[in-house]
Amino acid sequence: MSFRMEKYNPQKHDPQKVAEIIYAADVELNSYVLGEKKEAVQTIIKLLEMGNNYFASPYLECALYQDKLVGIVVSSTVKDKLKLDRSSGMAFLKAFGLWTFLKRFPTMIKMDKIVNSNLDDDGFFIHFLSVDLPYQNQGIGTKIIENILKKHEKLYVDVNINNMQGKNFYEKMGFKVQSKNLIKIKNKEIGTYSLRTKE
To answer: 99 pLDDT exceeds 90?
Structure first.
């Protein structure tokens, strides 16, 4: 398998494709914050161009198979995650514009409650992991996790409660459920399972 991971580079990796793969990581939860696909992809592209947010190049890696972009992972140390949580608000404000940001801000605050906050300082957090649809079920996600595990033993990830395939994948990779986190948005219950690899 001709597989490799490399840091996102807008001159080399198509920002539109990267943004689409990021959005597809969790369409349901992403739509609450970023909106419907077309609008969301444009917002993600703007975020890709900025620093100081989750999608900045230091935190975004592209998975390539036979030189084709097949997946992405957005990840950071727990210490960097805490800094990104603070700085990303300003980046989202710039990407959305003031009016859209103010409309979405209450939802963003609510959704913060379904993100794992029980993290050890020496841990590593996976914000997004997504494999492009035509390449799913071919071991790409496994390769991405194996690549991260070479550098970090203690991993954290949040998975949509409606994504049993994702939950099963992480459990197969050695993650254990730490908590189930639920909120209501527009009278609909949404949430995540918070998983980690090691105590």
So the answer is: yes
